Amino acid sequence: MTAVPAAANDAAPSPKPPRRGVLAAYLALTKPRVIELLLVTTVPAMFLAQRGIPSPWLVLVTLVGGAMSAGSANALNCVADSDIDAVMDRTKKRPLVSYEVPRRNALVFGIVLGAVSFAVLALGANLLAAVLSLSAILFYVFVYTLVLKRRTSQNIVWGGAAGCMPVVIGWAAVTGSVEWPALVMFGVVFLWTPPHFWSLAMKYREDYARAGVPMLPVVATPRQVSARILVYSWATVACTLLLVPATSWVYVAFAVLAGAAFLIVAQRLHNSIRRGHAYNPMKLFHLSNSYLALLFVAIAVDSAVGLPSFV
After folding, report:
1. Total-model pTM
2. What angle do CA 183, 189, 191 make, to 5 degrees?
3. Cβ distance 66 to 31 under 8 Å?
4. At 255, is the secondary structure helix, strand, or coil?
5. Which residues make Cβ contacts (< 8 Å) with residue 214, sequence separation at least 6?
6. Closest of 80, 69, 202, 89 to residue 146, by C-alpha
7. What is the pLDDT of residues 180-208, one digit of tens each?
8. Domain coordinates in residue numbering, the chain
9. Model confidence at 19, in pLDDT bands (50, 70, 90)?
10. pLDDT tens digits for 221-265?
């Protein structure tokens, strides 16, 4: 197993005054913007599992426990990646790099947050949801961060599985089991992750190269990357249609229209690169965020209105 990278900020004095308060610094360790997108997929999964509106209390417990679980994984990721974050422009303002939080404190914070999230989900939802949540933390930290990220260009493909777990956790919180629609939603997020992240990595290619992280855009040509983005984009949209038997025309109509928009932007990116024209991968990155969020909102709306499903 890869050792957690050493950092000097336990003993070294801070070279600059903190830019934010203590609470804000610890909150930044959890990467709130990442958590927001994860939770956006959790609630619709609960609506679909309930085939209607689930208990508000259960939704609240699952969101709180899920947020703490994701925050735990992100904080521990910051500890393990502090050396990488220090040399990347995109991450050099994170609390460990800016000496706002001691590394040891961040480690304890991440572990405690994970333990509390397990207790919240086990007591407020069920043991299956808690176990799935804990497994996501362990996978993200020990498999993605410490093994895959620094060793293979397929890091985000397989490591992204941790980010797919909120839909399964949400389903399990409602039903106490994992059924095929939960696995389909897992597949949607799994296939969506590479085009989402690779488009961002294209923008920050030099950052990853400087840090020695073999993200696909670092080791492959832009044309190769955009081609793979296009393949995964098509696979994502195709996977969304596997939910048709569990939904009504409301979801299907949105999945088709939104999927078409997503594919058009992915195709334009590939065409621009193939023809040697200027391109902006961040258009696809930003659209991918909106696409996933709105797709899952459509799942929630479809479940809430209670129209008959196709099967």
Report:
1. 0.89
2. 100
3. no
4. helix
5. 150, 151, 152, 153, 155, 208
6. 80
7. 999 999 999 999 999 999 999 999 999 99
8. 22-305
9. low
10. 999 999 999 999 999 999 999 999 999 999 999 999 999 999 999
Give the whole-angstrom CA distance, residue 203 versus residue 217: 9
Higher-confidence residue of 7 and 162: namely 162
Angle in degrees, CA 192, 198, 203, rounded to 5: 140
Within 8 A by CB and 6+ apart from 308, the residues are: 248
22-305 belongs to CATH 1.25.40: no
Residues in the chain: 311
Residue 20, both tokens: 């934010």
Residue 20 is predicted with a pLDDT of: 67
Q: Collect contacts of 116-121 with beta carbons under 8 A, ≥24 apart.
A: 116/68, 117/65, 117/66, 117/67, 117/68, 117/69, 117/71, 117/72, 118/65, 118/69, 120/61, 120/64, 120/65, 120/68, 121/61, 121/62, 121/65, 121/66, 121/69, 121/169, 121/173
Other beta carbons less than 10 A from residue 20's beta carbon = 14
Buried b (16+ CB within 10 A) or exposed e, 29-42: bbbeeebebbbbbb
